Write a sequence for this structure.
């Protein structure tokens, strides 16, 4: 698929990977603690705030940050901008890892995780009114689709493997995947469209308990748009990170083009959000001066700031500025999602929630796994395009 | 190429049409209570706060005592919890006071059952919102959905369940009434068919004008509930949410169903995407725009 992608190569057990493995180790102990003693013993969750950090960050924010594969696929395959093709594989890798980690996060959060296998298998019990069921099935399916989309990168490596069976399977699989690729990619576009919007629909069921600043029938649309902006931001960030960490020539022209495409998306999001508040007569709440109004206003600032940061051609070609803008954009989307899931949820004044140390450690552990897997995979398999700056020592 | 473009257009029209169906779908999907629906009628003017119903509920459901306070000796739950499916609360403000009984409202169109992925929470016999742990994965989305904050979760356990009033459905199957209404010495809470209870509530309202807030809570609130309330103090003072006549799930269904009915829109989108990509592949990569 990507002719110029090559493994980065280099040492695998680097100090960065060692540090991340340390964090992961601590996190694994906490996970074990959670499974043995339950959610009450390890989290700050309660009957007022039944959903917490693991859902709001690992799943709702994590999958949106993992929408780079979705965003780039729209660009390359639907809008036919072939020049972005080298970004497809790295984007797919972050997406596949992000969704896989989200799936693990869900299972940590589910109180009765040992029954989760029933969700995809007990189809005669499926409740089609449940937005959560749709999200669950779509995320499971999309995770599989992402790994299939990415699999040529692994098979390309394995087709020259010294292990005979692996070599044969790889050589057989590649042409099949090539033939089916179009319909797999189409599925990879359909599924995120469905579940990323449904992640918005999901919170609408809270009804009057969802604060009016966030409670709108267009919540699904806002969630869909924000996942695209976050996905693009992640691709830019990841690409810049790789070029710095692995000492590769940054694909600055491509990133600048992508950054240009992000600006209108941010405008559309902010305009829709503003128009919706005005339409529902809730603009006044933005200036109420309470914590929620400040956070909602901050969302607007964060969504619009990158449009200024990326306004001129020169700024879009400045790698440092691109990375900063991408970070702001990721933070904007993350805040919007956190707000919708945690801040906007008002179960009553006597309830409160702030994530426990254990919850934070588990989340850090999941992020660490993702980074470790990313580093190891790009070093071993043909994911990244571009040219290594030879003989220089890698930072990661 | 011309053909695939036309097909793509048709697909888009198809998708658009199913979204447009949204507005018309909602009215048809507002459910009513089943004809055999049973429930409770609670009257604040009759309740003396003896909490016999609280203890009876614990006994009938095999729940432990739920002591509170400084010495934690006495059964005194302050709220619904993983140990308490039914609780009496006291409201005091100035000279006004009222007890209020809190348990599952057994909504006519419950948000919790709408949330539940595999139907662990479901309206089963007599419209009772009942729980089947074999279908529950412990996602707690029902807790997010319930406007009354009724479902509770056994956070303290490694193999937790949802805990909520199921209107003593096992007792009903034995021909007995719920424990709370059976033991109430003042008949402040009575059990019966929802239609009969509604009639009785309206009879009381008509018989003593001025005694009650002129409203039966649950007749239409949030699409209606099978547990009905009469009160002499405003309902919002007792902790009841102000809900419209339409249930939140019915509003949501109009969004979800319009997009997903018959899976037409996703199928159409899939076809369109495939078509567009096929066309792009034939046209060759776009390169610089």
């Amino acid at each position: 698929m990507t002719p110029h992608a090559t493994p980065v190569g280099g040492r695998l057990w680097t100090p960065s990977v060692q540090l991340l493995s340390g964090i992961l180790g601590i996190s694994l102990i906490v996970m074990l603690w959670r499974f043995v003693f339950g959610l009450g013993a390890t989290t700050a969750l309660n009957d007022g705030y039944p959903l917490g950090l693991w859902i709001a960050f690992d799943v709702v924010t994590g999958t949106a940050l993992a929408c780079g594969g979705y965003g780039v696929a729209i660009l390359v395959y639907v809008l036919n901008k072939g020049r972005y093709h080298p970004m497809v594989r790295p984007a797919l890798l972050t997406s596949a890892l992000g969704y896989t980690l989200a799936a693990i996060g869900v299972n940590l959060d589910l109180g009765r995780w040992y029954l989760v296998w029933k969700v995809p298998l007990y189809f005669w019990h499926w409740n089609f009114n449940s937005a959560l069921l749709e999200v669950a099935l779509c995320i499971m399916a999309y995770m599989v689709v992402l790994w299939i989309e990415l699999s040529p990168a692994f098979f390309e490596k394995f087709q020259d493997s010294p292990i005979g069976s692996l070599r044969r399977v790889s050589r057989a699989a590649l042409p099949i995947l090539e033939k089916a690729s179009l319909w797999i990619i189409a599925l990879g576009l359909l599924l995120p469209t469905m579940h990323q919007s449904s992640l918005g629909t999901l919170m609408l069921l809270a009804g009057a308990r969802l604060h009016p600043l966030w409670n709108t029938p267009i919540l699904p649309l806002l969630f869909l748009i924000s996942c695209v902006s976050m996905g693009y931001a992640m691709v830019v960030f990841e690409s810049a990170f790789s070029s710095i960490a692995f000492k590769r020539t940054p694909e600055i022209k491509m990133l600048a083009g992508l950054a240009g495409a992000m600006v209108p998306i941010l405008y559309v999001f902010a305009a829709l959000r503003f128009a919706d508040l005005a339409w529902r007569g809730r603009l006044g709440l933005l200036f109420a001066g309470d914590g929620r109004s400040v956070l909602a206003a901050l969302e607007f600032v964060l969504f619009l700031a990158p449009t200024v940061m990326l306004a001129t051609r020169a700024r879009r070609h400045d790698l440092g500025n691109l990375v900063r803008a991408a970070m702001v954009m990721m933070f904007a989307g993350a805040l919007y999602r956190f707000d919708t899931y945690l801040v906007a949820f008002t179960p009553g004044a006597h309830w409160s929630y702030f994530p426990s140390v254990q919850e934070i450690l588990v989340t850090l552990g999941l992020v660490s796994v993702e980074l470790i897997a990313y580093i190891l995979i790009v070093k071993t398999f043909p994911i990244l395009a571009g040219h290594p700056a030879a003989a220089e020592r890698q930072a990661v | 190429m011309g053909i695939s473009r036309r097909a793509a257009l048709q697909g888009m029209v198809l998708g658009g049409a199913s979204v447009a169906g949204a507005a018309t779908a909602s009215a048809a999907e507002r459910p009513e209570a089943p004809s055999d629906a049973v429930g409770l009628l609670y009257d604040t003017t009759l309740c003396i706060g003896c909490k016999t119903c609280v203890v009876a509920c614990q006994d009938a459901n095999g729940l432990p005592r739920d002591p509170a306070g400084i010495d934690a000796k006495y059964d005194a739950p302050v709220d619904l919890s993983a140990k308490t499916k039914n609780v009496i609360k006291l409201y005091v403000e100035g000279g006004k006071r009222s007890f209020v009984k809190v348990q599952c409202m057994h909504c006519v169109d419950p948000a919790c059952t709408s949330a539940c992925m595999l139907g662990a929470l479901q309206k089963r016999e007599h419209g009772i919102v009942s729980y089947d742990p074999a279908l529950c994965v412990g996602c707690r989305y029902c807790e997010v959905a319930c406007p009354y904050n009724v479902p509770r979760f056994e956070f303290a356990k490694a193999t937790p369940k949802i805990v909520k009033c199921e209107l003593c459905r096992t007792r009903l199957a034995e021909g007995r009434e719920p424990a709370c209404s059976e033991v109430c010495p003042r008949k402040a809470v009575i059990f019966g068919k929802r239609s009969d209870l509604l009639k009785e509530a309206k009879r009381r309202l008509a018989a003593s004008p001025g005694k009650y807030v002129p409203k039966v809570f649950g007749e239409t609130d949030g699409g209606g509930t099978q547990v009905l309330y009469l009160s002499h103090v405003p309902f919002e003072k007792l902790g009841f949410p102000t809900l419209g006549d339409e249930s939140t799930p019915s509003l949501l269904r109009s969004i979800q169903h319009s997009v997903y009915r018959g899976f037409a829109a996703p199928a159409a989108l899939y076809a369109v995407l495939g078509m567009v990509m096929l066309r792009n592949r034939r046209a060759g990569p776009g390169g610089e725009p």
